Amino acid sequence: LPSTPTGFARGLYLLQSAGLVTLDRKFGGTSAQDLTITAANVLDSARHLDVIGLSFDEFLKSTYNSYDAIVLNPDQAASLGLVPATDALAVEPGPGNPYAHVLVAPSRLAGDPRVLELTRALEDPRLAGYLNRTYRGANIAAAAATS
């Protein structure tokens, strides 16, 4: 799994959704404790998995070739020639995902035209269509795509 605190937790929740581990909590909590669970939160591993955190930055391909399964983000998977929508064993849910990226700005920029324009662009259904076409369903947009 990714060695970052939230990446490791996301990987554990993904393994739980695939029925490979049982955790002491369900996916979807938004507290800091829920978002940064560790191997200590694993109650059971149906296949006796060793769950370890690795930094993939410098050796992604060798890591992919050395383990039975690894948890990757869509960009990492694409760099290996994988298509998450068809090659993944499991994909984390989009709607209601507490790890979704959010746009934040200092309060002094509330109402700033630049922030408002960026918000409109990120929520534009055309961007969602582009993401769906380019990443083949691996990245979930903030808005639904238009046809």
Task: Explain what you see.
The structure is a single chain. The chain has helices at 5-17, 32-35, 60-66, 74-79, 84-87, 113-122, 125-135, and strands at residues 21-23, 42-45. The chain has 2 domains: 5-98, 3-Layer(aba) Sandwich (D-Maltodextrin-Binding Protein, domain 2); 101-147, no CATH class. The chain is built from 7 helices and 2 strands, in the order αβαβααααα. The mean pLDDT is 85. Helices cover 37% and strands 5% of the residues. The protein is globular and about 50 Å long. It has a two-stranded antiparallel ribbon. By secondary structure, the protein is mostly helical.
Number of strands: 2
Secondary structure: helix percent: 25-40%
Gross morphology: globular
Low-confidence stretches: none
Roughly how many Å is the radius of gyration? Answer: 17 Å
CATH topology of the largest domain: D-Maltodextrin-Binding Protein, domain 2
Distance between the termini: 36 Å
* Averaged pLDDT: 85
Structural class: mainly alpha
CATH superfamily of the largest domain: Periplasmic binding protein-like II
Number of domain units: 2
SSE arrangement, N to C? HEHEHHHHH
Record the strand order, biggest sheet.
1-2
CATH class of the largest domain: Alpha Beta
Main sheet? Answer: 2 strands, antiparallel
Number of helices, counting only DSSP H or I runs of 4 residues or more = 7
Q: Which CATH architecture of the largest domain is right?
A: 3-Layer(aba) Sandwich
